Structure formats: C-alpha cells, structure tokens
Amino acid sequence: LLLAIYYGSFASKYGRRPVLLLFSTGMLLSLAWIVLICWLDGRVPIRLVWLASSFTLIGGGQRVAKAMLFTIVSDAVDASHRTRYMSFMSSIPHITTLIAPPLSAIFMRISIWLPFEAAMGALALTYILILAMPESSKLDPPESPPTDAFATHPTGRPEDEQRPLLPPEPNFAADLSPSKLSKSSSWYTEIHHLLHIPGIPFSFTIFFTAPIALLAKAFVYQHASESFGWEMSTTTWLRVSQALGASLVTIFALPLLNTFIRLQSLRQAQKFDLAVLRGSLLIASVGFAVLWQAKANWTLVFALFICGLSEAIQPANQGLATSLISRDLNARLFTTVAVLETVGKLAGGPLQSRLFSIGRREGQGSSGVNFLASSGIFLGLAVVAFFVRVRR
User: What are residue 246's phi and psi, to 5 degrees?
Assistant: First the structure.
C-alpha cells in the first residue's frame, strides 16, 4: 500500500517509464530467486522462496505497474477514445486466463524450467519496449473534444442541454500545473485535491467496493464442489465461462460501442462512460443474484458468464474518473486506485469467507449468502449511479 503511494509521487516527478523499468527489474529478480532456490534442490531451505516477494519492493509489483500503464493511456489518449483502450487493457488478464493454463502444460511437458525461462524472457523483452516508447508525461496533451459540442452555437440547443451536470471542479485542482506538483505537492495534498473534485468520490467508492463484491467469485469453485458435486479438476470450466463473458465485453462489445457512437464533446464521453457503468453494475447485480439462486449446473456456468459481462465496470469507471481531472493527476489517481482496490480485497476476503460459511455443515454446502450480498452491493452502487451527474 505504501509503495503505491510512493511510486505515484515518483511517477509524477520523474515520469512513468522509470517506474516500469523498476517493476521489470523487481519481477525479474523475484523469478530469478525462485529459480535459484529450486535449482539448489534441497541444499537450502525451500521456504527461502518466500523471500522472492521482497524483490517486488523494487517497482512496487504488478499493481503499481498496472497503475502506470493505465496512466500512460490516460496521458496519451483523449477522453472520447480513452474507455476503448482501457477496455482492451482490461481484457488482457481474461485472455491470459484462457491461454496460460494450456500453454504452461505444454511447456512443462518439454521441461519443468521452460515456463520460468519463457517468463524471464518476456520480462527481459519489456526493457526494450519501455525504452522504445516515449515518456507520456512529457507528451503534448491529447486533443480532447470540446467541452461543449455546441460551443459554436450556444443558442442552438434546448435550455436543459446548456445546464451543467455539476459545477466545475474547484480551482485548486484545475490550477495544479506540473511544476507545482513536482515542487510543492505531497501525496496527501494531491489526494485531498482529488477528493474535492465532483464525481471522484463516487468513482473511488466503486474502486473500493467492487473488489469486495467480486471476491465472491473466488468461492464459486468450492460452492460448485460442495453443493453441485463437481470435481475440483472440472471447475476450470467455470473460470473459462467467466473469462469468455469478460473477453466478449472488453474486446468486442465496449470498444465497438465506443467506436460507432461518435462522442463529439467531453460531456458526451462522460455520459457514455456513466451509462456503461450503470448498465455494468446492473449486470453484475443480476449475475450474482442468479449465482445465489442457481439450482443446476448450467445456471452456475451461465451466472458466471453474466458476471463476466459486467467487466466493463473497471474501464468505464477509469474513463469517467480521468475525464474529471487534469493530466497532472493521472499517476496519483491510478496509484490511489491501486491502494483502494488492495484495501478492498484485504477487507473483502474475511467478509466473504464469513458470509460463505453461513449454512455450511457436514454434508451440506453454503447457502450462498455471500453471492446475495455481492448482488446487493452492485445494485446499491447502480442505484446511486443513476442519481450521479458529472461534469468537469
């Protein structure tokens, strides 16, 4: 958590590429340490592999790297196209969920060391990619659509279209220039500014509560085994079902929708993101409700597919949040999001475990109250979202 805060300030001052280079170094050293301990094969305590995670202090690990990648997209892409690219990036974990297990099995048949060699080779390749790309914090700001699509004809539209959705963000946030950020602003000051920008507190609420609700999916496999008699080896199909739904919406549906709907103003881009967010929250609520009421194997698989279709929550929320702030705050925004998501998962794990234990006893599976609770969380967020109006 503290590393995310530190690297957010580091990225604001020195750029995004140095953080990514540090991340690649930390991950490469971590993998090399695991390989070394396993290669020594009993000559040293095997528990020393636990120290591998200490190397991720260099660069902050995957969560900080993910924050930097989303920051780069926000730096380089205008608000009308940003959600499309956020969606593509959100699809990558789901694609790897589909291809990594069979690929690893093939590699391990050839050599037990081959998966590690492939991973270390891929990390070495990232150095070339990072050094080849420009520093996004120094790029000219992307040419965003005008705040008002009818700016040239102020009297040519109905009065309700002229009314702002929310007052403009406070001047102290708008006045944050790169020089002021680098010289005088601390991480606390930057987060304080973010929280005073209309729409950001709601966005942060979703970033925090959604991981809590989504953790219910981690108990689906045990639920399928205990309540439906699935062998644990066959529960992989549940993961595939969820990944297919997520891939469908993040690779095809959301990008195509963003492409065909021409967003000619910043306000239209915000309304698009908010509409996608509302719909995705409702889909998530329905998916977990079906999961709670599932009585047959096919409904279990179908429920996870529906949950996968709600994966547009993250890119829509990211696109909405970045449209509300100045580019100077992008790195701080995404590292703060990394902290919120981590805290949400830390809090949600014990909570979901306790809810899942309700109704469980010898020979009987859980009553699935945790799925109902997740459905309620998403429904509550959706209801609030329908009353939210944002405008930078």
Answer: -65, -40
**CB atoms near residue 353 (< 10 Å):** 13
C-alpha 375/C-alpha 369 separation (Å) is 10
pTM assigned to the model: 0.84
Helices H, strands E: what count in the chain? 18, 0
Among 23-27, 119-123, 170-174, 352-356, whose mean pLDDT is lowest?
170-174
Chain centroid to Cα 287, Å, comes to: 19
Q: For residue 173, which amino acid is it?
A: A
Q: What distance lies between CA 231 and its chain's CA centroid?
A: 31
Q: Can you tell me the distance from the alpha carbon of 67 to that of 319, in angstroms, rounded to the nearest whole number?
A: 13
First to last CA, the chain: 29
Q: Using alpha carbons, list the distances in angstroms from residue 70 to 46, 123, 209.
A: 36, 19, 20
Q: Which helix (H) or strand (E) holds 311?
A: none
Rounded CA gap, 229 and 221, in Å?
A: 11
Radius of gyration of the chain (CA): 23
Question: Which spans in 310-329 are helix H?
Answer: 313-323
CA dihedral 92, 286, 313, 222 (to 10 degrees): -50
Q: How confident is the model at residue 185, as a pLDDT? A: 59
